[in-house]
TrEMBL record, chain B:
Keywords: Cell membrane, Membrane, Transmembrane, Transmembrane helix
Transmembrane stretches, start-end: 6-26, 33-54, 60-83, 95-115, 127-145, 152-172
Native organism: Protofrankia coriariae
UniProt topology in membrane: Multi-pass membrane protein
The keyword Cell membrane is annotated on this UniProt entry: yes
Protein name: Hydrogenase-4 component E
Amino acid sequence: MLGWRPATAWAGLVSPATILGCAIVLAVRVPGHGPVTGYGGLARADALSAWILLVIGAVAVLACAAGPAYLAAENAAGHTDARGARRYGILVHAFLAAMAVAVLVANLGVLWVAIEATTIVTAFLVGHRRTRASVEAAWKYVVICSAGIALAFLGTILIYYAARQAGIAEASALDWPVLVARAHELDPAVTRMGIALVILGFGAKAGLVPLHAWLPDAHSQAPAPVSALMSGVLLAVSFTAILRYKVIADVALGPGFARTLLAGAAVLTLALAAALLLGQRDYKRMLAYSSMEHMSLIALGAAAGSRLAASAVLLHIAGHGLAKSVAFCSSGHILHLRHTTRIGRVRGLLGQAPVLAAAFGLAVLALLGFPPFSLFASELAIARAGLTGPAGLGWATAAALVLVLAAFAAMTARTAHMLLGPAPGRDGDTTAAVPAEGGGGGVAVPVRFGAAVWAPLAVGLLACAALGVSDVPLSSLLSTAAAITGGP
Amino acid sequence: MSTGTYTQLLDLACGVFLLAAVLVLWRRELTALVRLFAVQGVVLAAIAALSGIHEHRFELLAVAVGILVLRAGVLPYLMRRVLAASGETRETEPLVNVAASLLTAAALTLLAYAASRPLVELAPSPATRALPVGLAVVLIGFFTLVTRRRALAQAVGFLLLDNGITAMAFLATSGVPLIVELGVSFDVLLAVLVLQILTTRIHATFGGTDIDDLRELHD
C-alpha cells in the first residue's frame, strides 16, 4: 500500500487531538475570563463555542481512532485502495477544519461559508464507495443541503440588510456580538423573514423537516467513522448556528417567534422519525432516524429557552455525539462482519462477536436514554423544561414524549433482534447471512477484535457514562454556555 | 450617471435577469439552459457594477468583474464540459409541462412581490424596489430544482437560486462584506465542481443522468 501505512493512519489522530486540546484550554479559560477574540475580531470563542469545540474534539478523536481499523477492513474487502484511503484522510481533516471554523467565527457570513464548506467536503466522503446507492446519496446530499443552506444565506442577507438600515457599520453588521447588542433596533418585519429562512436553511443541515430527506441516505451510505462525525457533530454544529440566530431573534422579535418555528419543526421531525423507525429494516438508517429524533429533542429544548433547558440542550448535544459515534463506528464493524445492513439478516451478534455486540447494544441503550449515560439526565431536563415551560409548549412536549416512546419501542425491538438469537453457523439458523472470514464457515467461535476496534468504542461509552454520572469538571463551562443561549 | 439613467438601466438589467430565469423553464435543450445561465451572469455583473457606480463605491466594480468571470465564464464552461462528456442534449419530459411551468413562474413572481413588501418598505429606493425580482428568481430556481429530471438541469436550478440570492444582496445592501462574498463565490464554485464530478459518476454508474433513475435508497 504505497503511501498509506498504519503509521500514516494513526497520524490522523494528531489534528483531532489538537482540536480537543485547544477546546480544553478554551474551556478552562473562557468561563472565568470571558470570550477570547483573535484575527482582528474575526475569530471569537465564547463558552458556547468552547463547549461545541469540546464535543467536536471528543467525537473526532473517537471517529479518527476508529478510522484505521475501518479502512483496513474496507481495503481487505476490496471496497477501497491506497488512493481512496489517502483521499479519505484528507477529506476527513478538511471536514474537521471546516467545523472548527464554523464554531470559532464571530461573523455570521463566514459561519455560513464554513457550514456550506462542510457539505462540499463531505460529499465525496458520502460517495466514498462509488456504488449506485452511495452516488445517489451523495447527489441528494449535495443538492438538498446546498439548496437548503442557500436559503439560510438569503436569511443572513436579510439580517444584514436590517442591520445596515439600523445604522450598524458595514464591517460589523454581520458580527454576532454587535448584532446581539443592537438586536432591538432591527426592523421586525425583515428580521422575521430572515430568521424564518435561517431556521429553515440551517435546519436542513441539522436534519429538521422539511429539508431532511438527505439525512438517512447520507448517514447510511457514508463510511462508518464519517457517519459518526456527521451525525454526532455536524448536526450539532448546524444547530449551534440556529442557537446563535435565536438569541438575535429573541431580542428583536420576542421569544415567541423562534419558539413556534422550532417547536413545530421538532414535533414534525419527531413524528416522521418515529414513523420511519417503526418499519425500519436497515440498521444504519435506524441510527440515522434516531439522529433526527435526538435533533428534534434538542430543537424542543431550544424552543423552551430557559436556562435549564439551554444547559440540557448542550448536555444532550454532547451525550448524543458520543453515544451516536460509538453506535455508528460499531455498525461499520457489524457491516464488515456480516456484509449486510439489513436488520433481518443480522442475528445472534452477541454470540458471534460479544465485544462488538456489547458496544453496539450499550450505545443504543445510551441513545434510548438509560442511566448512567448522560442522555438520561438531559432528556429528563428537556421534558421538564418543555412541560413547565411557556403555554403551548406543554402540548408539543407531551406529543413529543409519546413519539419518543414509539421510537424507543421500535429501536429496542430492532436492536434485540440483531443482538440476540443463535449465532450464525449453529444449527437451525437459516436467516443468518454468510459468515464473515473471521467467523469461519460453520464454526461458532466468537470473533475477536484487536484494541484498534474496541478501544475507541469503550472510551466513547465511558465518556458518555462519566458525563452522565457527574459533569462537575465541566459545570462552570456548561452554565456559562447555557447563559449565552438561554433566557433567565 | 443621473438618477434617471441609473434607474432605467437597473430596471432593464433586472428585467433581463428575470426573463432569463423564466426562459430556463421554457427551453428544453440543455445547451440553451447553460447559455441562459451565462446571460444571467452577465446581467448580474451589470447590476453589481451599476450599484457600485451609483454609490461611488468603485471596489464593487472589481466584485462585478469577479462575478462576470465566475458566473458568465467559469461555471458555464464547467457545465458545457459535463454536457460534452455525457452526450445528452435534451431534457426528458419534465415533471410539469412547459405551459404549467410558465404559469407557475408567473404565480411565483406575484408571490415574490407580495412576500417582499416589508423589504421594500424598510428603505424604498430604485434598487430595493427591484428586490422582488431577486426573490422571484430564487423561487423559480427552487421550482426548476424540484421539477427537472436531468442532473445538469437540477444544477442550473441551484445556480439560478444562487444568482437570485446574490442579486438580492446587491439590490438590498450593495453586496455583502468582501470576505463573505469571496467565501460564497468559492463555495459555489466548489459546489458546482462537486456536482460536475457527481454527474460524471452518475453517468458512469447509472448509464444516464436522469435523476428518476436514482431510486436505490428509500424506506
